[in-house]
């Protein structure tokens, strides 16, 4: 299925003449505008304390409500991935992270309204999990030793893949 299958109208002129141009773009047959579809950027964070424990969250909302997750979310406009990681951790846990190191990325399809993403994973450091509280999209804070991470406890596909990659 074409990644822009959900879009029937040209975003420039509004004509219902928006057709496939190639595998990653649609073109308006009325005004000739071509829209190239690119993934949105998202971040997810493995947050470690000096003891090597990881702070995780339980999802408060769909998709995958009630499953474990890594704090994170979409990168806002005019924001770097590192800034997004710091903001998302603060919004979901109340914590300020000291260090933020890029690990790897995984392409993803965020469900609901289909959003193609590139999920960027970071390892973040904090001195303590004291004061962490579930906020925003998080229902609960979970603290686990690294060796107790189980990818099957996570509900989102890219997060499961990331946890599996991280523990190996």
Characterize the structure shown.
With 168 residues, the chain is mostly beta strands. Helix content is 14%, strand content 38%. The protein has two helices and ten strands; from the N terminus they run E-E-E-E-E-E-E-H-E-E-E-H. It has helices at 81-93, 157-167; strands at residues 18-22, 25-28, 34-36, 40-48, 53-59, 68-69, 72-74, 99-110, 115-125, 138-145. The strands form two sheets. Strands 4, 5, 6, 7, 8, 9 and 10 form a seven-stranded mixed beta sheet that branches. Strands 1-2-3 form a three-stranded antiparallel beta sheet, with no helix packed on it. A hairpin with a 2-residue loop joins strand 1 and strand 2. The longest helix has 13 residues, at 81-93. It is elongated. The chain starts with 17 loop residues before the first strand and ends with a helix. 27% of the residues are buried.
In helices, the fraction of residues equals 10-25%
Give the termini separation.
33 Å
Query: How many DSSP-defined strands?
Result: 10
Averaged pLDDT: 94
Q: Rg from C-alpha positions?
A: 19 Å
Question: Number of helical runs?
Answer: 2
Write a short abstract of this structure.
By secondary structure, this protein is mainly beta. It is 14% helix and 38% strand. It has helices at 81-93, 157-167; strands at residues 18-22, 25-28, 34-36, 40-48, 53-59, 68-69, 72-74, 99-110, 115-125, 138-145.
């Amino acid at each position: 299925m074409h990644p822009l299958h959900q879009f029937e109208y040209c975003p420039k002129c509004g004509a219902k003449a928006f057709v496939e141009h190639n595998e990653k773009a649609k073109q308006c047959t009325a005004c000739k505008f071509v829209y190239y579809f690119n993934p949105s950027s998202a971040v997810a964070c493995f947050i470690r304390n000096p003891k090597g424990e990881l702070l995780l969250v339980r999802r408060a909302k769909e998709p995958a409500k009630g499953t474990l997750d890594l704090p994170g979310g979409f990168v806002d406009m005019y924001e770097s991935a590192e800034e997004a990681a710091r903001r998302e951790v603060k919004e979901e846990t109340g914590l300020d992270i000291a260090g933020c190191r890029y690990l790897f990325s995984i392409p993803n399809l965020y469900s609901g309204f289909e959003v193609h993403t590139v999920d960027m994973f970071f390892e973040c450091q904090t001195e303590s999990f004291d004061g962490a509280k579930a906020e925003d999209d998080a229902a609960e804070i979970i603290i686990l030793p690294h060796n107790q991470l189980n990818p099957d406890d996570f509900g989102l596909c890219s997060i499961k893949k990331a946890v599996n990659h991280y523990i190996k």
